[in-house]
Every structure is written in structure tokens, then in C-alpha cells.
Amino acid sequence: MKNKGIIYEKAKRFSLDVIQMVKTLQQNGESIISKQIFRSATSVGANYSEGLGAESDSDFIHKLSISLKELHETQYWLDLLKDGHYIQDDCYHFLYSESDELYRMITSSVLTVRQRLNNLRQPLKNQNSEIRNQ
């Protein structure tokens, strides 16, 4: 199988870590928040993976932006689980730190592609200005 990159692997590992936490939560009788965090955390990697197969740079940015939104949601659920005393502080800090690192990595990818798009558009803007000024 083709290597899909460090962000893909990190998102997959993050999803698996959250799945393990969810199993423990459900064994202890917590089912509502665990379902929500399961969905949002696993959606991060799923949307990133979709972005890898994007049809355009804009589509790539869109898919990764969804991953970022899902990370925000996941962090919210982590906050509730910690503040509601469903998870230990070490579990919270580990998963929150992992989600934060993923957020920075994905944001960096989005910014890189946006910059590339801006650089491609800049010569067109200059060319159009020159035509209008003639």
C-alpha cells in the first residue's frame, strides 16, 4: 500500500486512540458523549483521506477544513469528558495534545496550498491590470 504521509498516519493513530477511550467509556456506562467523540475524531482522518484524493486544490482545502472543524468538535467533547470526570487528566492531556498537533499540521497544509494558489493567481492579476491600463 502506498504511504499516505505523516498526517494520515497521525490522524489514524489519533482515531484508534479515541476508539480505545470510547470502548472504556462505554464499558463504564457512558454512551452519549462517547458516540459523539467517536464520530468527530474518526471524521478527522476520513476527511483528510478524502482530501488526498481531491479533484482540485480548492477541494483539498475544503476537505481539510472539515477535518479542522471536526478537531474543534473533538476538543469540545474532550473538555466535557474531563470536566464531567469521565476521563483522567492524563488521558485528556494526551488526546488534547495529539489533536492540537494534528490541527497545526493540517492548518499548515491548508496554508501551503492557499499560498500556492495565490502565487498562481498573482501573475494573472498583474496581466489583467496591464491589459486594462493599455
Write a concise synopsis of the structure shown.
By secondary structure, this protein is mainly alpha-helical.
Describe this structure in words.
The mean pLDDT is 92. The chain is elongated and about 60 Å long. The protein has four helices and no strands. It has one domain (6-133): de novo design (two linked rop proteins), CATH 1.20.1440. The chain has helices at residues 6-27, 32-52, 57-83, 89-133. The chain is mainly α. 86% of the residues lie in helices and 0% in strands.
Radius of gyration: 19 Å
> So, the CATH homologous superfamily?
23S rRNA-intervening sequence
Mean pLDDT: 92
Give the count of structural domains. 1
Number of continuous helical runs: 4
The count of strands amounts to 0
Q: Describe the oligomeric state of these chains in a short phrase.
A: single chain
Key terms for this structure?
134 residues; de novo design (two linked rop proteins); 86% helix; mainly alpha
List the helices and strands and how they pair.
Elements (H helix, E strand, L loop, with lengths): L5 H22 L4 H21 L4 H27 L5 H45 L1
Helix pairs in contact: 1-2, 1-4, 2-3, 3-4
